[in-house]
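Async update (no meeting this week)

Hi team, since we skipped the sync, here's where things stand on the single-chain job. The sequence we agreed to prioritize is pasted below, unchanged from the tracker. I ran it this morning and attached the output directly underneath so nobody has to dig for it. Comments welcome in thread, and please keep replies under the output.
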Amino acid sequence: MDDDENYPQWSDEEDDDHFSENVFDTADYENLDTTSYAYTVVTEMSLLTMQMEQLNIMKEILALPENSARILLINHRWDVRRILELFERKGKERLFSEAGVTLHENNGPSLSSQSTITCNVCFEDFSMDEVSMMSCGHYYCNNCWTEHFIIKINDGESRRIRCMTPNCNAICNEEVVRKLLKSKSPDIASRFDRFLLESYIEDNNKVKWCPSTPHCGNAIQVEDEIYCEVECSCGLQFCFNCLSKVHSPCSCKMWDLWSKKCQDDSENINWILVNTKPCPKCQKKVDKNGGCNLVKCICGQHFCWLCGAATGSAHTYHKIKGHSCGRYDDEKVKHIEHAKRSLHRYTHYYDRYKVHADSLKHENEFKVTFEELVRTSKSEESNHKSFRWALNGANQLLRARQVLSNSYPFAFYMFGDELFQDEMTPEERLQKQNLFEVQQQQLEFQVENLSMCLGKGFHGISDTELFDTSLHIINLTRIVNTLCKELYLCIEDDLLSPLQINHPIAPYKSQALTKNQ
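Output:
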């Protein structure tokens, strides 16, 4: 394949003014940020604001107090759209009842009409100001309520503390909980408020904590799609769905299997099966380190490497005295051959996955270098001297290298027997594998081109050479971006879409080609 065949290019013969006006303007892109994706970084400062926005929507639409709005939102995982749909379908009374929201307050006996009240938990009498009633109408002494709240908070139920009355589904009023806890246990009251605040993250399908270690304190909120890759303001990139490192085009299931396979001993076991034999006496695994078929275990037992039978020690290079190999064991040979193929296949994909992962670590230095060039370049210099195009190229290179690295574990499972054995005939599998590998190889070729061009550096070259180099790198950046898109289209439309088993992957997003508005 020619380097730049069938891809947009710019002629070196174009005049400088035309080039500056069109090529650099259209290439003036920023790094990937949260505004170009449908997700938002939730900081500790913005958490309360975002939570209050949702609470105010519920309070306004359904005419609810804040406590009831929070109960409803927590019960339905802060999904306003879902709540409104259920409101139309189930009606107000059923919706509220199922969530633990009481429709009518103070439907129990009036406390003001009595001088003393008997608590039905401790059975002691209390004055009216020592008793509290929830909106469901049930009342108990403040001491019993407080102990109940403390137990529930310590048990991890702080966001949905139910009334003490048996069979009562009502959630306790947060103002009452807060007031009683502050007077007896301010620390637990603070924990209660913190848990209510963090319920916007803990009980929300669209918000998850950043998995950084140590934890940065941020969370990520997505708008619609949970199968996406996001970047926290702390710099960590991760899969929103499974919280693993960025792994597309692998599905979360594929990545989980691959991560475990790289960590466990499954391939070591295959190597042992292929390259060792059990001693017929002590059953320890023995590795043959010479050409002779008579081997000796550390326990002293001699045996035949070909058939595994115990023998004496007398032998020549070609024959063991008093021994001839037994019958051919077809199943044993098949088992070993299968282990050999599995080991070879895994090694093939792992080696290429690792090579690209190692290149990614090295190429991160490009980004650091070009960020410094952009920072120190003078604003009045022409566009090709601003080095923005080099930084864009480095960002695109990092994204494409990541895609390439992860494309090998994807291929390992896509065209293996572990996940999709019954989904494709051998002929279909071979055809799809060839289609995928053509796309993969094209991307690989252009990624290496871009890496080589960026790795040369730009010191000591003339202004004309720098101008020509910037042209070439801008062109390569766009080519690599196009090939990444085509690889994802191939995976989504030709490989995964026909399968009965659903394996959603995060959509491709370019880190270099997000337009600066």
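Quick observations from my side:
The longest helix spans residues 330-376.
The mean pLDDT is 85.
Reply here if anything looks off.
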